[in-house]
Fold this sequence. Notes:
InterPro entries: ConA-like_dom_sf. There is one protein chain. This protein has 1 helix and 11 strands. The protein has one domain (6-173): Jelly Rolls (Sandwich), CATH 2.60.120. The protein is 2% helix and 48% strand. The strands form 2 sheets. A 6-stranded antiparallel β-sheet has the order 1-11-2-7-8-9, with no helix packed on it. The protein has a 5-stranded antiparallel β-sheet with strand order 6-5-4-3-10, with no helix packed on it.
Amino acid sequence: MTTPEWTESWTLYPGPGRLPDAAAPDVRARTHSISTEVLLPTAGDGGVVIAHGDRTSGYSVRVADGYLVHHYVHGGGLSSTVSTARIPVGRPVRLEVLVRREGPGGTVTLLVEDLEVGTGRIQSLARGRTGYTGVDVGCDRGLPVGGYPGPARFTGRLTRVLIRAADDQLLDPARTWDIADSAG
Length: 184
């Protein structure tokens, strides 16, 4: 798997507030990577690493029952990709979700310590808005993206999240600011 050429990046940190949608990393309809390093003290630790949007439109990355999970909601459809291997406990572990845009959709690859542990498909990437509820790091306030109970606070160690994006964005200019259709 070749590494995309990243043209933009954002580093986000957990905290008590939500980053407004207008200041959120712009990963709409483009190849992007979400990576972090976590430490799970026990097999029961986990929670949301990052969430942008809500159950009508958005994405989240979380650790659930020891597995890396990526949820993506757009146009009324939920796509969930779950790792085939559990995340090691008791030591720092690098996690990454890579979404490669392919036409209107994309392929999701989950990596733990740079090893591929899961793949999935997103039929349609958002080409307009990604929800209106902003970005949470370390939890998911409001209406959770993946149908899990909120706020799903991360109970391990999470220091920061790095988001990188490639220059292959395919937006629909007519829907970019269409407030009437938040699923964009």
